[in-house]
Amino acid sequence: MLSGDLAHIRSLMERSTRFISLSGLSGIWAGAVALGGAWIAQQHVGVYDGTTPYMGGRGVHDLTYGVDRRGVLPFDDLTVTLLIDAVAVLGLALLGAFWFTWRHSRRTGQGLWDASARRLAWNMLVPLAAGGLTCLALMYHGLPGLVAPATLVFYGLALLNASKYTLDEIRWLALSELALGVASSFWVGAGLMFWALGFGVLHIVYGGLMWMRHERGQQA
C-alpha cells in the first residue's frame, strides 16, 4: 500500500512540474514532414553532388558560400522557394504537434497550456528566437551554407533548455541535434543532408521511442 501511495504522489508531482503530454506521434509527424520538405528542396538545388541545375545554373557552390562572400545574398527565385518550403514545413509540423499533443493530453488528464507547458514553451522560445535571428543574419550576409548547422545547433540548445520540463527522451534528442549541428558546420556542402537527418530521421526515431515508452497500449 505504501509503495502504491508513493508512486501516486510521485506521479502527481511529475504532472505539476513536467509536461508529460508531449506526444511521440507529433515527433514522427514532424520528421515525416521535414523529410518531405528536404526532398522538395533537393529538387531545386544540387546539394549532394552539385550537378542539379536550377534557373540559370546556380548550384551547390553558390548555395554553400553565397553569391558574393563580400556582399549580400539576393532574394532570388531559389532563396524565396527555399524560404517558402521551410515555412510550410514548420507550419505543418506545428499543426501536427498541436493535434497529437492535444489528443494525448486528453488521455493523461493534463492541461494543454498549464504551468509546466508554459515553462516548456518559454525555455524553448528564447533559444529558437535567437537562432532564427542568427539565421536571418547569415542569409543577409550571403552565408546560406551555415544556416543548416545553425538551425540544428540552436534547435538542440532549445530542446536541451526545455528538456527538464518534459520527457527524458527530449534531452537525448537535444544532444543528438547538437552533435549533428556541430558536425555539419565542418561539412557545409552537405547541409541539407544533415538537416534531413536532424529534423527528419531523429524526430522519427525519438518520436517512436516516446510513443513506445509512454503511449503504446493507452486507450483512446
Note down, in words, how this protein is organized.
This protein is an all-alpha fold and 220 residues long. It has one domain. It is 72% helix and 0% strand. The protein is globular and about 50 Å long. Mean pLDDT is 78; it is low at 5-16 and 47-73.
Please render the helix and strand layout as text.
Elements: H1 2-17, H2 24-44, H3 60-65, H4 77-108, H5 115-140, H6 147-162, H7 169-184, H8 191-215
Helix pairs in contact: 2-4, 2-8, 5-6, 6-7, 6-8, 7-8
At a glance:
The chain is 72% helix and 0% strand.
Give the biggest sheet: none
Class based on secondary structure composition and strand pairing: mainly alpha
Percent in strands: under 5%
- Tell me the number of helical segments per DSSP (H or I, 4 or more residues long): 8
List low-confidence stretches.
5-16, 47-73
Mean pLDDT: 78
Helical amount: over 70%
Tell me the total number of β-strands.
0
Measured distance between first and last alpha carbons: 29 Å
Count up the domains: 1
Tags for this entry?
single chain; 220 residues; mainly alpha; globular
